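Case study 2.
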Amino acid sequence: MEKFKAVLNLHLKHHNALGYGLVTLLTAGMEKIFSAVVFECPCTAAWNLPYGLVFLLVPALALFILGYALSARTWRLLTGCCASGARLRCCCRLRSALVCAHISWAAALAPVTWVAVALLGGSFYQCAASGSVHLVRRLCAGRDSSCAAQMPLVPCQKAEAKVQDILTELKAQSQVLGWILIAAVIVFLTVFTSVSRCLSPVSYQQLKFWRIYSKKEREILKSQATEHATELAKENVRCFFEGSDPKEWNTPSRKDWEQISLLYTFNPKDQFYSMLHKYVNRKEKNNSLGSAEGDAVIPVLHFVDASDISNGPF
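Prediction:
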């Protein structure tokens, strides 16, 4: 039992890192399965390039779109934007663009992993490069005149021996590109994290408290919403079968829900920890929760918008 508690505490403490690690491992595993079971280079001049690029890039694009779809912030940003009178509130604003940029970076983890692992493996790149006219011309420079015609057969090990050795060069190029991509992502992530933490308007300890608050608010909101919805459903069903009038029920209005669903912006004048926190403090003042002077989107506070009633993005 003690070991189980230790594992659980480790998961709760590092759930973001573990989640990203799991996504990375699953993506790498998928790539290995695709390259070993599904991928088979056609070894023709017409099909090598498009076939290799499709396996290298199309799954990455699909994973990127899936990353967007699984993000709670995506649907927080989009839900209701096409409704009458809401388009101006949702679109063409700097904070929406910044939120989209952060969602894009988070969604890019799986696609980058796919491309990096595929490049390190080399199969997709070898197939695509052997069908590229420009690369073939460069690789065959100084070789026999039949080299260009033999190049599409190289990935299938069917080319002449004097041309087949180019396969090693293609794999080396692919792996170098893969390591460059990995290094670039690590450097960018380190720089981005360091700069965002450096520009954080709150201290390290307050940021830890803020994360705890966001987690507890999400849990309590879900619990209270479930209880409230259950009681309301029971009341409506009772009135339906008994033919009676429902008792007065205090439920947040559409505008109330809209207010707490807005994208979070930090304001040093009033350090609210969420849009719900801001709503209950400004409700009596009858102030709008929209943009105000001094509001700003802070990258290090991205977890605030990720807090949702449900555990999933939908």
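Residues 1-15 have pLDDT under 50 and may be disordered.
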